[in-house]
Design goal:
The chain is of the alpha/beta class and 408 residues long. The chain is 41% helix and 12% strand.
Length: 408
Amino acid sequence: MRRTDPEGHGHGPVRYGPPLPGQGLPLPPGLAAAATGAHTEPIGGSPALLDAARGYWTRRGLPAERDRTVAAPGAPALLLALTAALGGGDVLVPRPCAAWWAPQARLLGSTVFPVATPAECGGLPDPYALLETVRRVRAEGGDPRLLVLSAADDPAATVAPPEVVHETMEAAADEGLHVVSDETWRDTLHDPRDTVLLSPAEMLPERVTVLTDLAGPFLPAGWPAAIARFPDNDTGTEMRERVLDVLTGLGARIAAPVAAAAAYALDEPDEITHRLAASVRLHAGVASAAHRVLVTAGALVRPPRAGRHLYADLGSLRSALGALGVGDAQELEDFLTARLGMPAPGGHRFGDDLGALRVRLTTGPFLGATDDERMASLGSPEPLELPHVKSALSLLGSTFDDLRRSPR
C-alpha cells in the first residue's frame, strides 16, 4: 500500500505526533471572552493563573501552595522541562503511552524504556514488569530515574483500578523513581459515579509531580497551556526551580490571552463545568457506540472509560487487511485515515510494535463537520440518532463489516 505523508510532517516519532483527541466543539462564550490581554506573562505563570491551578487541585484533594505550581505553554514543553530538571537518566513509560511522552526524553538524549501494562488497563506499567525492567536496566549500566504514567489513559482510554495504582507506586518507590502523573484526562471519566480514579500523588506525594494538559478538560488544542504540581518537600522545591530555569531558557511563556482563558477555566464557573459534563456525556456515548462496532467486527478493544478516544487491536482481521495491502501499523493508519476520512494514528505512534495492527480512533470527528452540527450533537438528548452522527458511525460500521466478511 502506498505510504502517505500525514499532515506533511513525515513519519518520524517526533515530526508527526498525533495531537490530543480534541473536543470538536465550539468554545463556550465565556471562555472565548476571557481570552484577552497583550501583556507578557511571566515564565512559569502569573499569580492569577497559579492561584486558579491551586484551586483546581484543592477541589480534587490535591492542595498545593503557589510556590509548588508551574504553568507552561503546553504539556510537551512542561514534560521536557521536568525531564531535564532530573538531570538526565533513563525514563520508563508504559507501552503503549501518550504519543508526546517519549519524544521529550529522547530530545534530551535520555533512553526511554517501555514497560508492559497490566491486563486490566493501560496507562501505567505492570508492577512486576516495572521492577524487572529497572533491575535489568541497572544491571546493564543504565540509570532509570523517571517514570511517566497516567491513571486515566491516552491511548487506551482506560482508568486504572486503585489497587493497580497502589502496586505500581509501591514498585516505583522501592526503586527510588520519581513519578510524573499525567492527569490530563482525570476530568473526562465516562461514568464518574462508578469509576474511582486514584491520583498517584494521593498515595506517594513526596515522589509525584502531577501534570495536566488543559486541552484535556477545558481548552482547544490550539491554545497550549499546561500546569504542574510539585511535591511539598526539598525535592519538589529543587525540581520547580530547575523547571523554571529550563522554561526560561526556552522562552516558554504562555500567551497572555491563553493564560487568561486558562485561569477562567480552572476557576470552574458554571459555564465551564456544565459544558465539560455535557461534552463528556456526548463523547462517552459516541465512544460506546464505536466500541460496539469494533467488537462486533472482532477487534480487541478495552471498553473506553475516559477521554475522547478508543484503542483497537485489529490482529484478528490481519488476513483481510493483508489482502488490501495492510501489513503493519503505518499501513493501517494510512488505510483507515483514507477510508474513514478522519485521523487514525497507528499504534507505533504510541510506542507499540510497528508490526502490530493497532490504532487509536477519536470521537470528535463523529460529532459533525460544522459548528452547527457539533452544537446540535451537544444539545441533543439522542445524539446518536442525528443524521450526521449516524452517518459517521455507519461508515465506521460498513468499513469493519467489509473487513469482517472478507475471506480470511
